[in-house]
């Protein structure tokens, strides 16, 4: 006796419509299946049972693709009583909980068995069917009985179950004139998007819309504004640059003068329940035929899908139902009519076949020609005659061409599992239907190509902007991968070549599922990289697929105990998942810059999936831009390495320890990458108990300034150690600078010699040649200049310089800075000498390091903008006796 609520599959109800789809064994398929069931039931007008159907489908598809690890086939059947949904997987030996005294369906907190528990709770009837290769769980939801005259309304729900929205729901109202420009913008629109009305009125809405996200897919915003009624999702770029996802309802209206415009209501996408309305129920075929004689609508139904994919999918489903077939497929011809590309299937693994290409003429097994109707009674008689149907179990097939003005535009076929199902009569019926839809399909295809071209252009412009915005190699590699995944491919790998003698190196790997990246990287690192062939265009690379299949086969054998003394289960899940991830088509595009191959861009698809030719052409355009950006980042990195190496050579490697004197130096070079030139400092021993110090500023930046910087620092050390005094050192340095001729630069320089004394003080001899004067901070807090100004170097031949003697007592500080400190600006304000004196007065009792840090902090806080000039700060302090 059957358990309550459980029954075997019956066909007693009349099936009035059906919809089917297959989903890959990946996590994102669960969401795709939910969307498929929701859209199907809403299209049928069954909004009352949508939520229960989506919940049950989600659980059953999760069991198939996540727990069983197989593809899931979802079939929706509309009957006169309600809806029947069937979910099948390829794992028939999987244990199914059974009602009974000793078996329970499962626990709500457990993943396994929860789908069946929900079926028992929500469905009117449900059951499980088995075949040698499939397991199928089905459930039926009956429509609620309504009294005559009752209008559809949502159920009364507890407050906790109502849709979540902000405390104040903002509904942006935007009016668009006939040219597409914004003519009205309400306060809610200003609040949601951040633009005031005067900022946007008169501008096209397309300037603010970020749509479509994937090139060539979806209706464009410009097209949507021309429709009499449209409702859907897209993005608006706000004033802060971020994209605000919105749900919108557009309605075309006209004023009393007959001027058309479009009124747009927009809410945040997570509040779409405020605007979203279910689709109208489909009109029965009988009623439709009585009102119209249009053969296209008779076959496709009304309303016809707006997008090409929807039109093609509706076509194959109607063709299959019309001839009572088990499967149907539609292929579109390439521009040169030499190949046919699979674009829609039903009853076949659509994800595996989508975008695969077959020749128009495939030898004797192609029924002679794809340009004529053809019937094949038994495919087993000619193995491989229809490559699309290989290993699908189909025996008989009828195909007809789609032609527009005598030109082949596609092929439509219906297949059955039984042999001898079709004759010339069915071929004529199918050809009649194909003639009705050929023009609509071609028009939709041309529209898709145009949108794809526009989207591709927009994509390449954005890619160029992003690649041009960085000169960092690692960031360039990351951008290359992120722009291709998932827009162009499921996964991406970038190989780089350092020079002509180096082998390609795997530099970056990205997969749309982050959990697959490590396994993919490990697989690619164990196989030889693709050959660096400079030939433009994408070429197929089979090594990842082959290696993944071999690894999956090996680990499966080990798991089963073949070829090993014991099973090894470690890593089998990762290996099999990686094999599925790279099981589709893989292509390699060379990265060529300045007539040299600098790397390869590798793009891949999951199991048995293929690339569209338009996507490959877009990827080729992207690879050219990415190659130039990658080479530019390499050149910039080399230049920066040289610049930074030279910069380090112009500054002392370290500071000597001076007995009885604290010394602190802070150096900040302005400009990205710390460009060579500008300020410099030095502190070095001259002889026992004598030390030299210098701080200077060369006019200008770049190589010429760097040359004077290097000349000054090394000449100072050499002349001081030869025994010359301060004035003699600077006079000889002045002559050396003038000898540089046109390359010379004038130089401001503070040079001094320091002798620590036994009584704890320090004696300094200082020469200030055009440099900001050194400041002396006494222990009582007074600040005064420690030298007098003298002529700068590199201008006059004859200089008469003199040195001044300064004694630093315990607790005194000598502060030396470059003009990057005193000339720090904020608008018309400047820190100046007086501002530096005020800062130094607050440093009484601080160490040399604390004094330098306080001065730097005061300079940085003086203005919000980054410093535009180099800065050097040299602080020397004689500590008090108890602090030594």
TrEMBL record:
Domain PAS: 167-203
InterPro entries reported for this sequence: Bact_Sigma-Reg, GAF, GAF-like_dom_sf, HATPase_C_sf, HATPase_dom, PAS, PAS-like_dom_sf, PAS_fold
UniProt keywords, alphabetically: Hydrolase
CDD domains associated with the record: HATPase_RsbW-like (cd16936), PAS (cd00130)
Superkingdom of the organism of origin: Bacteria
Regions crossing the membrane: none
Pfam families noted in UniProt: GAF (PF01590), HATPase_c_2 (PF13581), PAS (PF00989), SpoIIE (PF07228)
Protein's UniProt name: SpoIIE family protein phosphatase
């Amino acid at each position: 006796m059957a358990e309550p609520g459980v029954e075997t599959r019956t066909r007693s109800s009349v099936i009035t419509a059906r919809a089917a789809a297959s989903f890959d064994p990946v996590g994102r398929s669960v969401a795709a299946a939910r969307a498929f069931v929701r859209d199907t039931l809403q299209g049928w007008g069954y909004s009352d049972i949508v939520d229960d159907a989506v919940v049950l489908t989600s659980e059953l598809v999760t069991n198939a693709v996540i727990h069983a690890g197989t593809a899931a086939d979802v079939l929706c059947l509309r009957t006169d009583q309600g809806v029947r949904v069937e979910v099948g997987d390829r794992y028939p030996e999987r244990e199914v909980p059974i009602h009974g005294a000793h078996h329970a369906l499962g626990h709500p907190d457990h993943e396994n068995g929860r789908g069946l528990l929900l079926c028992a709770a929500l469905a009117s009837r449900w059951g499980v069917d088995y075949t040698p290769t499939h397991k199928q769980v089905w459930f039926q939801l009956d429509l609620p009985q309504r009294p005559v005259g009752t209008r559809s309304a949502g159920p009364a729900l507890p407050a906790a179950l109502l849709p979540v929205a902000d405390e104040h729901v903002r509904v942006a109202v935007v009016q668009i004139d006939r040219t597409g420009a914004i003519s009205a913008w309400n306060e809610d629109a200003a609040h949601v998007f951040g633009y005031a009305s005067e900022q946007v009125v008169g501008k096209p809405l397309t300037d603010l819309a970020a749509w479509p996200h994937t090139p060539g897919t979806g209706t464009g915003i410009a097209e949507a504004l021309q429709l009499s009624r449209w409702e859907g999702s897209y993005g608006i770029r706000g004033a802060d640059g971020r994209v605000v996802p919105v749900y919108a309802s557009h309605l075309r209206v006209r004023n009393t003068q007959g001027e058309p415009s479009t009124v747009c209501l927009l809410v945040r996408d997570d509040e779409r329940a405020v605007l979203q309305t279910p689709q109208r129920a489909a009109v029965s075929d009988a009623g439709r035929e009585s009102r119209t004689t249009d053969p296209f609508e008779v076959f496709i139904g009304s309303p016809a899908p707006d997008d090409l994919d929807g039109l093609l999918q509706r076509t194959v489903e109607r063709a299959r139902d019309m001839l009572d077939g088990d499967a149907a497929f539609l292929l579109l011809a390439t521009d040169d009519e030499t190949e046919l590309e699979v674009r829609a299937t039903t009853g076949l693994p659509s994800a595996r076949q989508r975008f695969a290409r077959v020749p128009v003429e495939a030898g004797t097994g192609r029924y002679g020609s794809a340009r004529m109707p053809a019937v094949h009674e038994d495919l087993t008689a000619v193995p491989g005659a229809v490559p699309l149907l290989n290993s699908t179990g189909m025996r008989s097939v009828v195909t007809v061409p789609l032609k527009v003005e005598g030109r082949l535009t596609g092929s439509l076929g219906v297949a059955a599992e039984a042999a001898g199902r079709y004759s010339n009569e069915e071929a004529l019926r199918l050809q009649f239907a194909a003639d009705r839809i050929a023009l609509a399909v071609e028009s939709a295809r041309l529209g898709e190509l145009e949108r794809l071209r526009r989207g591709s252009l927009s994509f390449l412009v954005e890619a160029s902007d992003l690649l041009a915005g960085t000169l960092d190699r690692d960031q360039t590699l990351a951008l290359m991968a992120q722009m291709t995944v998932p827009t162009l491919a499921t996964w991406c790998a970038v190989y780089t070549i350092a020079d002509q003698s180096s082998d390609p190196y795997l530099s970056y790997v990205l997969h749309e599922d982050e959990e697959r990246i490590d396994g993919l990287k490990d697989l690619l690192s164990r196989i030889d990289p693709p050959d660096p062939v400079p030939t433009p265009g994408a070429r197929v690379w089979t090594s990842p697929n082959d290696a993944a299949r071999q690894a999956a086969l090996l680990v499966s054998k080990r798991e089963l105990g073949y070829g090993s003394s014991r099973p090894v289960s470690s890593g089998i899940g990762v290996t099999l998942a990686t094999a599925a991830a790279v099981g589709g088509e893989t292509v390699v595009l060379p990265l060529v810059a300045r007539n040299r191959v600098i790397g390869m861009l590798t793009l891949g698809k999951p199991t048995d999936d293929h690339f569209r030719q338009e996507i490959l052409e877009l990827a080729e355009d992207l690879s050219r831009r990415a190659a130039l950006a990658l080479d530019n980042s390499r050149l910039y990195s080399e230049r920066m390495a040289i610049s930074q190496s030279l910069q380090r050579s112009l500054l002392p490697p370290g500071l000597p320890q001076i007995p009885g004197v604290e010394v602190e130096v802070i150096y900040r070079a302005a400009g990205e990458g710390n460009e060579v030139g500008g300020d410099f400092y030095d502190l070095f021993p001259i002889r026992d108990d004598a030390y030299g110090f210098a701080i200077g500023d060369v006019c200008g930046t770049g190589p010429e300034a760097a040359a004077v910087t290097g000349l000054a620092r090394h000449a100072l050390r050499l002349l001081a150690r030869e025994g010359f005094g301060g004035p003699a050192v600077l006079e000889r340095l002045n002559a050396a600078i003038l000898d540089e001729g046109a390359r010379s630069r004038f130089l401001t320089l503070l040079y001094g010699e320091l002798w620590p004394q036994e009584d704890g003080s320090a004696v300094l001899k200082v020469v200030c040649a055009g440099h900001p004067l050194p400041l002396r901070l006494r222990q009582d807090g007074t600040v005064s200049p420690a030298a007098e100004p003298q002529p700068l170097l590199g201008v006059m031949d004859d200089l008469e310089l003199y040195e001044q003697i300064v004694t630093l007592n315990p607790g005194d500080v000598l502060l030396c800075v470059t003009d990057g400190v005193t000339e720090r600006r904020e608008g018309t304000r400047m820190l100046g000498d007086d501002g530096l004196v005020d800062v130094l007065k607050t440093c009484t009792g601080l160490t040399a390091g604390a004094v330098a840090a306080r001065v730097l902090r005061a300079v940085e806080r003086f203005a919000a903008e980054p410093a535009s000039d180099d800065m050097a700060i040299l602080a020397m302090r004689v500590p008090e006796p108890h602090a030594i």
